[in-house]
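BUG: 3D viewer hangs when loading the predicted structure for this chain

Environment: internal workstation, default settings.
Expected: structure renders.
Actual: progress bar stalls at 90%.

Input used:
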Amino acid sequence: MTALLILVLTTYFLLFFFLHRYIDLNPPRAQGVSFNEPLAVVIAMRNEENNIIDCLKSINASKGFEHAIHVILIDDHSEDASVNTVRDNLDAFDKLNITLLSSTGIGKKSALVEALQSVSESWCYLTDADCQVKPNTISSMAFQCLQEKKNIAFGPVMYHLGSFRNELMAYENMNTQLVGEALLRFGKPAMVNGANLLLHSTAIPAFIAAQNMKYASGDDVFFSQSLDHASYAVVHHAASIVTTSAPQSLRSFFSQRLRWTSKHSGYSLAFYKYFPVVVFLQNFIFLVLYVLWAFQGFGINQIFVVLVCKWPVEWAFHTLWFRKYDEKAGLVHGLLLTLLQPLQIVVVGISAMLNLQYEWKGRNVVNQSIAN
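Structure tokens produced before the viewer hung:
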């Protein structure tokens, strides 16, 4: 029993050590660069009347662009006042040239494909209607691409802080973004976010071709998994952040993670199939240990020692990693993540295997397809 517990803890430490090796702890800071090539920003919007103006304001405040930014905003059959809200504020953005389209298909992927086909600019930046970019986000992505001679760049997406619940979700999400960075630098981009993605126009056909239309989401992940390591830049630092709101309830958080996880069945390469399985099995084992410890009366025993050691492993690495974003790994948040994450990963993983229905942007998704 002792040998098994040591093995479990050792493999967990090795996973974090592997991730640590591929996280850049000394990234560049914001650079005052001037970008003189035409840029389009493509946004697929659905039911975002409360967010879209803040999104456009943040893009309008972007620095380093000599030309007006062409925003192609495509509406995915919004049922609120999103479209009218944009039309009423078109004159508020002095640096933006906004084109408003209506999607002829259903779903974000169809909307993105349709909008991307109308891009004529040299570069295209993708983000979401509920996100806000920092002043140097897009220019830092473009600068990195030009410096490394790459035509694709991936950046991080973080949650706004606020309530204790939001801060806990932000902590968990930052861990997710850092894991995603490590996998990007390792050459296996299994976890990326299309809300902070820059493409040269020559990469747009590859993005469109990579879309697996069977799945309601995953435009970013399926594209990234079609790439070789030499084709993209990793721009994960404090100046390249995109921010968005944390899920507003446990139900929406569960639906979000179920949506992310449900794409697993569509992955084709072995690494993308089995890496999530390894993570699931590790967390399943820790969840079993929690249950066994409870049945043993929460005593100070072998299981207790392993579970106590799990937290310092996570917190120590998070303390190092979070500094690159000028954030601190809180003790309480770290402890709660240690306790709750195994339950979250196991429940979401099993739910994804059962093809449970979930709600996304006011639509029901069944068997990874939009039902209504």
